[in-house]
Amino acid sequence: MSKGNNSDDPNNTEELEEGSRSILLGIASQLTKGMDLHRVTLPTFVLEPRSMLERITDFMSHPEFILNASSIDDPLERFIAVVRYYLSGWHIKPKGVKKPYNPVLGEYFRCRYKYSDGTEAYYIAEQVSHHPPVSSYYFCSPEHHVVVCGDIRPKSRFLGNSAATLMQGVSNIILADRHNERYEILMPNMYARGILFGTMTIELGDSSRVRCVTSDLVCDLEFKTKGFFSGQWNSVVGKIKKESTQEVLCEITGQWTNELHIKNNKTGVKELLFDVKTAQIHPKEVAPEEEQDEYESRQLWSKLTSAIRSRDMDGATNEKTLVEDRQRQKAKSREERGETWKPRFFNEANDEYTFKGAEGLDLTDPVKAKEHLQQVIFAKHTGSGEDSC
């Protein structure tokens, strides 16, 4: 396991070299405030060397907070466990304003987890739409009856010295054991600050919510961005309430890159909710690139990733262009043939995406559930590259 973000600079800020800053200034001069950035080609030096489909796995980095949540009898304590798990996934971020690759249509990322209690979990994410971009994902720990699923539908906007990623879409944490609870999560927005001048960093901002209808509990969170002259980096405040009466049961304060605390309003006791400095990131197991299918994320972007890590930005630009041009050619071919692309791992109905492997999945029998998930997620694809995307 590896430690969390505990460097001397927990905010992971960056001062950009003058040449790189000039490139960004040149791009910015062609943009208007509020413009959609999805179709804007960003220079490769702002890319984090992994796909957004892999970036989502950051939220599975601290399984100890959720795997045994169903064993907690008290609904409030169980709800707090879910909130802690959700908040623990944000601190893993690159230096400056690096962003993960925009996945191409049909790209997918899959991995598995092995836990100290001998259990396993499985994860699959797929880019199920390109315009607009939609990333669907599904995580399941059969022995613990835990499912995390949903989709991310980012919309990017240019704001001047910053760019915003509006994180639309809904995530769900499902405790499918004796409580049979679903926790619905709305994400905060992300802001890349200091693009044109000043210190570059990623901030979370605006509101977020965790809600469980069956337990009548809701947590309203506010991620606060730092003011120009005052304020603190990466602050978050939240209130856990009984939704029917709006009674505030607990209050959350702190920094999502450092320490978070929770206070019980009945007892007045304030406790540590999550500490990034001592957090251990649980590793995921991913097949070697040479064993991956053509459209698995690490295989698909392998040459781009190598170029970025070796700081060959010209080579990185060429490799990124090759992947994107091939994607455009395939889209054009499908259009000429009158074909409609369909996801490999997810079904679509009324703009909602559900994991195909969820059909017939019986979590009351973990052994069969694991066999079923492995068969669906890790089956070798026999179609051609044209079929897969």
Tell me about this structure.
This protein has 389 residues and is of the alpha+beta class. It has eight helices and 20 strands. The strands form four sheets. Strands 7-8-11-12-10-9 form a six-stranded antiparallel β-barrel. Strands 1-18 form a two-stranded antiparallel ribbon. Strand 5 (120-129) and strand 6 form a beta hairpin. Helix 5 (302-309) packs antiparallel against helix 6. The longest helix is centred in the C-terminal third of the chain and has 25 residues, at 313-337. Residues 13-19 and 383-389 have low confidence and may be disordered.
N-C termini distance: 35 Å
Give the averaged pLDDT, no decimals.
Answer: 86
The number of helical runs is 8
Helix content: 10-25%
Apparent shape: globular
Determine the strand fraction and express it as a percent band.
25-35%
Strand order of the biggest β-sheet: 7-8-11-12-10-9
- Report the structural category: alpha+beta
| Oligomerization status of the protein chains | single chain
Reported for the largest beta sheet, the result is:
6 strands, antiparallel, barrel
Counting DSSP E segments of at least 2 residues, the number of strands comes to 20
H/E element order: EHEHHEEEEEEEEEEEEEEEEHHHEEHH
The parts where pLDDT drops under 50 for at least 5 residues are 13-19, 383-389
Rg (CA only): 21 Å
Region (Disordered): 312-343
Protein name: Oxysterol-binding protein
Biased composition (Basic and acidic residues): 321-342
Pfam families: Oxysterol_BP
